[in-house]
Design goal:
- There is one protein chain.
- The protein has 109 residues and is mainly alpha-helical.
- The chain has 6 helices and no strands.
- The chain is globular, with a radius of gyration of 15 Å.
- The two termini are 21 Å apart.
Length: 109
């Protein structure tokens, strides 16, 4: 597990980036024409950005909401996912791709 301070620093850095805009047509085309390595490159960059924005949005909620158990649970899930994805390198060898795909399946559940 990463130190909380370094994870917070990474979140701040990552949240400065804007998510890539993508249309449904582009998404379909990407799925039809790209391979697993291309998907990994895109998702490895894009998911942490989007998740960091979600965490930042949650942190801006009023304190009365932030203290609710359900909101804390959702924020914890986002942090866990952000941390898990931060552990992946830019390397896209077969082992990394398999591990990343498996991890996305776990996150989805």
């Amino acid at each position: 597990m990463r130190a909380i301070r370094s994870l917070s620093t990474l979140l701040d850095k990552t949240s400065r980036y804007q998510p890539s805009a993508i249309t449904v047509a582009q998404l379909v085309e990407f799925g039809e024409r790209r391979n697993e390595a291309d998907s990994y490159k895109y998702l490895h960059r894009e998911l942490p950005i989007r998740i960091s924005h979600m965490i930042k949005e949650l942190q801006m909620l009023p304190e009365s909401l932030l203290l609710q158990r359900s909101v804390e649970e959702v924020e914890d899930l986002y942090w866990k996912t952000f941390e898990d994805l931060a552990d992946f390198s830019g390397n896209h060898d077969e082992k990394t791709l398999s591990k990343f795909t498996r991890r996305l399946g776990e996150i989805k559940r």
